[in-house]
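Regression check, uridine-diphosphate-N-acetylglucosamine case 366:
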Amino acid sequence: MSKTKIHLIAAARPNFMKIAPLYHALAAEEWCDPAIVHTGQHYDANMSDAFFRDLGMPDPRFHLGVGSGSHAEQTGGVMIAYEKICLSERPDWVVVVGDVNSTAACAQVGAKLHIPVAHLEAGLRSGDRRMPEEINRLVTDAISDVLWTPSPDADENLLREGVDPARITRVGNIMIDSFERMRAQIEAENAPAAFDLEPGAYGVVTLHRPSNVDDPDMLALLVNQLIGAAARLPLLFAVHPRTRNRLNASGLWPKLEQAPGMKLAEPVNYIRFMSLVRTAKLIITDSGGIQEESTYLDIPCLTLRENTERPITITQGSNRLVKPDELLANVEQVLAGKWPHGRKPDRWDGHTAERIVDDLKKRTRL
Ligand code: UD1
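Current build output:
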């Protein structure tokens, strides 16, 4: 009997820690053959290869090499390239994760070729259609056959949109599987020392959302707030390539670099980054995933966004939405010990990949 062919679509940095535990769990099964397909949306070594290495993944079986571009160029490029692979390989399942352009692109290719599509991290909604990711979530969930959700709010969003409950399985948060898989290495890493920081006495910053970094006025405001915060607590800012480009273009890079207490770094690989997060006093971010990782670790997370598609990190976790001009005041709250503690959401337990394998097997006609 031939094995069930499963394509796992990996594209951008936040996808890799979602694909890895699933790849490892599927690779241990007799009935299926998982293949990693890298679209090439992220291509810098420190945005891609370093994560494959850290997470123990093999080189992708297929690499589409699509790279950067406008939304249409990137999405269209991935569709054109992935359709060719699908036509020649005829996978039995296409598994897409998260909400990046490649997620929506590959889901569309699978759906139009009548190949069953499963979406991992389905049902999240920010309600903000100005975010490209929200469009990607809506499109992907509408056309995926199977919707694997991380939390009850995601189930509710899908049911409200009229999705047949038979398509939904709540599997939990796959990123926690990656953290637990790599916990020993993360704990052994001691990344703070590498940056001359003391555990418990620094903050970690990441920013890359177009709404924060593409608008020069907003970027300038955030830079001023970060400089103020760094004077109170040393900050390690791991700068995303999009953000680096914008800081350079607006002439803000030298100002930030020279600010007392501020350390600017290249994007950091997974093990090193989680080692930094684990012993941070606080996190300042606009990332989706880091809101969840900080909730799991009960670290104060100051999210520089107007909304979040991950509300459980606020209702149950240590995450709060923060207005840009109130960043410094919120940092003071953390330093004064006034930040609320959170708890771990249900099924954020390191066993999500197992639940997915069970569900996928049940839904596959072997
Ligand atoms: C993408 C995702 C976003 C995710 C983020 C994580 C979409 C719409 N956005 O945003 O949801 O949170 O990834 O990082 O899919 N660049 C490099 N090297 C790289 C990759 C990008 O230099 O390896 C630069 C290029 O100038 C590129 C820019 O960063 O134009 C933006 O990259 P892109 O993949 O379009 O979006 P991200 O901002 O990374």
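Comparison notes: The chain has two domains: 4-172+348-363, 184-335. Residues 4-172+348-363 form a domain with the Rossmann fold fold (CATH 3.40.50.2000). No diff flagged against the previous build.
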